[in-house]
Amino acid sequence: MDSVQTWLREQAEAIGISLNEGQLEQFELYFRLLVEWNEKMNLTGITERAAVYEKHFYDSLTVSLASDLRGEVALADIGSGAGFPSIPLKIAFPQLKITIVDSLAKRIRFLEEVGSSLKLEGVSCIHGRAEDVARLPAHRDRYDVATARAVARLAGLNELCLPFVRAGGSFVAMKGSDLSEEIEESRFSIKQLNGELQEVKRLELPIERSERHLVLIRKVRPTPQSYPRKAGVPLKMPLLGT
């Protein structure tokens, strides 16, 4: 275990996550696959090892500060890209049942390779638009937790993610710095989608000190039949009210 892995273990412990040697080896293999595949397709602009461990791996693990991920939790990661936050969370919490939804087939192939190489069980990768997948009975109002990381502004993101969440479950949106305007413009969509804003948790990355926010939205009742709207509409014409 080198200094970067030791750093991740210590930072994980600081937020209540214990990582063993096998899990740290999974993170290292994930890093190598990410860099290897990134040469063939655009997965991330961050490839320096320590930066990947901080800005992708550790950052993903902070979702556990907003939602209890112990036990048989079903988690849907919407627009996962290179697998953040769901793959780091799966490594840290092996009992999680993960469903990854992404619209790009090449990214899904990468994520399937990661799942196979890391021997992750209980990970399902779905190629499709969130608006379409959320209409399927197997996924609508089914998940304990939905996550999305810097995918879009919250007013549109709510419509992509909340339909996956069961009543009583939660949506954790991972966002960057100043969020006040984005939160305000998202209030109408939260209400329309039968959600309730619970908390906005502010964090800082340990080394870079850049600001992060976890927006926790609780699902109060099942998704209204009119949502989500057709693919592309939620981001082009987000629910903003009057």
SSE inventory with pairings:
Layout: H1 3-14, H2 21-38, H3 49-61, E1 74-78, H4 86-92, E2 97-102, H5 105-117, E3 123-127, H6 130-133, E4 143-149, H7 154-161, E5 165-175, H8 180-192, E6 195-204, E7 211-219, H9 233-236
Helix pairs in contact: 1-3, 3-4, 7-8
Task: Tell me, rounded to a whole number, the average pLDDT.
Answer: 95
| Helix proportion | 25-40%
- Any idea what the radius of gyration is? 17 Å
Structural class: alpha/beta
Q: For the largest sheet, list the strands in their spatial order.
A: 3-2-1-4-5-7-6
**Beta-sheet strand percentage?**
15-25%
Keywords:
single chain, 242 residues, alpha/beta, 7-stranded mixed sheet, 9 helices
Question: What can you see in these coordinates?
Answer:
The chain has 9 helices and 7 strands. It has 242 residues and is of the alpha/beta class. A 7-stranded mixed beta sheet has the order 3-2-1-4-5-7-6, sandwiched between helices. The protein is globular. The model has no long low-confidence stretch (mean pLDDT 95).
